[in-house]
Design goal:
By secondary structure, the protein is an all-alpha fold. The chain is 65% helix and 2% strand.
Length: 645
């Protein structure tokens, strides 16, 4: 038994050492022209997905004043309907002029009898035959029929989603989130057998077919069914694309690519208003969005497959063909025994894939369970904020919805770059993301201080500022989460952790659209709730900062003054020059070159008082060794002799 255990352990060590030599990365490198082509094409696939996700803003807009005509049950059917006036507006017989949209939204579903009677008398000069209630403020007549007079044919007018049926607009978006949840789990399972490139093509074709049916059906039940089905194919498409991006890049290039992939969601939001203005029917908008993928299907031929997936499934010839193409475009050297190395590497990957990975492994105690609970909560809250801020932009006013949507897209783009800066150039990216989220969320509460005036362009612009601040901070946090969540666990468990947090966040998205219904209480209730959720998960981000930070970034020292620099630098040179009495045996030119080329960090300047003399010697040795490697000439031999000083 001990011998067999030692043999298996030795084979495991040999297998791990062979896997450590990544032939794929040696051939195509971390980034190059070959990767750039595939990356851009995969990024473009996210734009139609963003359109389909956010198109509810334009397919189900809130009705304007005068676009709904309410007919109570006691209305005399022989009387004519309200007619359009000379200024282009619709006379609504039951509605008085109101100062806010909040009162309008209440009055849409209940026609007040006295108001209706007074309007009828003033406009037609005769008594209304319905019995008016004595209490003008308390009684109301429910609408028997609501007629739509808008020129734009939306989901609201098609399926009569008003009053008690208004919640069905949120149900539509919930089914989209449900499709993303199911699609993500299906993609994880399908990638075990289907190549990412082929799965991506299946997602494109499915989105084209089901997306067109979503806009062409004439019943609400079929609409939400096909919307969920289209969302499943969207998830298959961008999940497999993300898999390819992770496989063909590495190092810092992978961090930048994964972070910037969120940028194209924002670009999709910016472009969506420009597309919607060309269509006056919600069905045409769905057809246009879904049909745009036909171009991407044609471009799919230039999307590369994941080379490690090909090797893991023993498709060595296809992987070899792809790596040769990569080496050609990136101008990299190819080993003469590449096919042999790929065959051996494929066996190692196959053996590693045979090891069963249980979901419970991420909860085995290697990472504290409290930290895993934190990261799941943070992901759920961040995705809820991302989705709700898009849906609630409809509340700011239908007249400004195009400008508001584009502004949210630009705020997202800025947030992505802020998050990328935190990842690359800060040590405590979790803390900075949490601080930004807390400040943005707490400042959102100031929206209650805005005066309760008519919802004109000025009022909408002031309220939009708070939405943009919250959107920017949330996008920066999502960028940090997308890139840095995997550092919480070992490399073997990163896929399972990302699957877990993304699945949990999409589960939260299934229920979050119902927050938009709370506008019947007050228009600012939903933004207050998401602001509260924002600063709470900002505190959770700061909590994670206690355990994880970027160790590659050095601690920023205090900036020295010029006098401090001169004093400490002379002290370093004096200590190193006084370490030996043989310095006078060398030429002054050689010594001056040594002093001129010697460099230290700012931290070394501040900590000079803690350096003993022998550490100065080692500092000089390191500098001279570096010079000798760069020169490689006879002067390098002379400079190496200075190490004895």
């Amino acid at each position: 038994m001990p011998e067999s255990e030692s043999e298996s352990g030795g084979s495991t060590n040999r297998r791990q050492s062979s896997v450590a030599v990544d032939v794929v990365e040696q051939i195509h490198g971390s980034f190059g022209r070959w990767q750039l082509r595939t990356i851009l094409l995969i990024f473009l696939c996210k734009i139609p997905s963003a359109w389909f996700m956010a198109c509810i803003i334009y397919t189900a807009p809130y009705p304007w004043k005068g676009e709904l005509v309410c007919r109570p049950s006691d209305w005399n059917a022989s009387e004519p309907l309200p007619q359009e006036t000379a200024d282009g507006r619709i006379n609504n017989l039951w509605q008085e002029e109101r100062s806010t949209d909040r009162l309008f939204n209440v009055d849409v579903c209940n026609a007040y009898a006295q108001t209706l009677a007074r309007g009828f008398v003033s406009r037609h000069g005769q008594e209304w035959n319905a019995t008016a209630p004595k209490d003008d403020s308390a009684s109301s007549l429910p609408c028997e029929q609501v007629e739509h007079t808008t020129a734009y044919k939306s989901l609201i007018t098609e399926f009569d989603l008003i009053c008690s049926r208004r919640v069905l607009v949120a149900v539509t978006q919930s089914f989209h989130a449900l499709g993303a949840l199911i699609g993500g789990l299906m993609a994880y399972t399908a990638l075990k057998r289907i190549s990412p490139r082929r799965l991506m093509l299946l997602g494109m074709l499915g989105q084209i077919f089901c997306g067109n049916l979503t806009g062409l059906v004439d019943t609400y039940q079929l609409h939400i069914y096909f919307r969920c089905l289209t969302s499943i194919f969207c998830a298959l498409m961008y999940t497999s694309g993300q898999f390819i991006l992770n496989d063909i890049t590495s190092g810092q290039a992978r961090i930048i690519v994964i972070t910037l992939s969120e940028l194209f969601w924002s670009i999709g939001l910016v472009l969506l208003p420009g597309i919607s203005i060309y269509f006056d029917d919600w069905s045409y908008l769905y057809v246009a969005i879904s049909s745009s993928l036909i171009v991407l299907v044609w471009l799919h031929r230039w999307i590369a497959d994941a080379p490690r997936w090909l090797l893991r499934h023993q498709r060595v010839e296809a992987a070899l063909r792809q790596l040769l193409e990569s080496a050609t475009y990136n101008n990299r050297k190819v080993p003469l025994t590449l096919d042999v190395q790929l065959t051996a590497y494929a066996k190692d990957l196959e053996l590693a894939a045979e090891q069963k990975r249980s979901y419970c492994r991420i909860w085995d105690g290697e990472t504290k369970r409290s930290q895993l609970i934190y990261i799941h909560w943070i992901w759920g809250c961040a995705m809820v904020l991302y989705n709700i801020t898009l849906l609630m932009i409809r509340n700011l006013g239908a007249a400004q919805v195009h400008v508001n949507t584009a502004a949210l897209g630009f705020a997202e783009m800025v947030g992505v770059f802020v998050g990328l800066y935190m990842i690359l150039y800060t040590r405590r990216h979790w803390r900075w993301a949490g601080n930004l989220m807390i400040v943005a969320s707490l400042s959102t509460y100031l929206v209650w201080l805005l005066p309760e005036t008519e919802r004109n362009s000025r009022r909408v612009g002031l309220e939009l500022i708070f939405w943009l601040i919250l959107k920017l901070a949330n996008s920066a946090s999502i960028a940090v989460l997308t890139t840095c969540t995997g550092e919480m666990v070992s490399s073997e468990n990163r896929v399972l952790l990302m699957l877990s947090v993304v699945t949990f966040s999409r589960l939260c998205l299934v229920f979050c659209p119902f927050l938009s219904v709370l506008t019947v209480i007050h228009p600012l209730v939903p933004i207050t709730i998401i602001a509260t959720v924002g600063w709470i998960y900002g505190l959770a981000l700061r909590r994670l900062n206690r355990y994880y930070w970027n160790t590659e970034q050095p601690h920023i020292s205090q900036v020295p003054t010029p006098n401090t620099y001169r004093r400490h630098s002379q002290m370093i040179l004096r200590r190193c020059s006084s370490a030996s009495t043989e310095v006078s045996g060398y030429s002054n030119e050689l010594l001056s070159n040594f002093e001129r080329n010697m460099a230290v960090s700012i931290a070394d300047i501040w900590h000079i008082n803690f350096y003993p003399i022998n550490e100065c010697d080692s500092l000089a040795e390191m500098e001279l060794e570096k010079r000798s490697e760069e020169l490689g000439t006879a002067e390098a031999a002379k400079s190496r002799s200075l190490e004895t000083i």
